[in-house]
Each structure stands twice: as C-alpha cells, then as structure tokens.
Amino acid sequence: MIVESLRKVVFFIAVFLYFICIQITTYCYIIISKLGDSMQSLPSNAYVLLSVVNTKLRDFYSSLDALCDDLGEDKEEIINILSTINYHYDEDLNQFKN
Q1: What sign has the CA pseudo-torsion 82, 86, 90, 96?
Q2: In the chain, where the domains are located
Q3: CB-based contact 53:82 (threshold 8 Å)
C-alpha cells in the first residue's frame, strides 16, 4: 500500500516537473525571440546597410516594400541613407545600384 502511494506521489511530482519545464522552455523561447527581433534592425553605416539590404532583397524579399514591412523599417529612410552614397533602388532588378 505504501509503495503504491509512493508511486503515485512520484508520478505526480514527475508530471508537475514536466509542466514546469514546458513553461520555462516557453518563456525562454519568448525572450529569445524578442531579443532576436531587437537584433534584426538594419545597420546605420551606409555601406554595410547597402550590403545587408541587397543581400536580403536577393535572398528573401521580392521588393523593398516587402522587406520594410517584414522588418518594420522605414523605406524612405533606407532610400535616403543609400542615396548619400549614390545608390538608388531599381525596382526591376530589386536591388540598390550605383
């Protein structure tokens, strides 16, 4: 009888710990995803920005609008920064060109 009671207690403790681990994992995932979002912002250096934006346009986005919408960036700000180094967005090529 005592052994059966101990088994039940151990089982409930194991289930409780399992759910605690799931909660901790979920909270860690949320925190990491929030940190990832904050680290997704584009660089401020025009030449680095050019490289990053053109790579993202080539590999992931069909347009500058799609990139800006997805990353929450200001399209005009990107255009203005890159125009300071004489690069302009070419919609047909989907990249910034000199």
Answers
A1: negative
A2: 1-39, 46-97
A3: yes
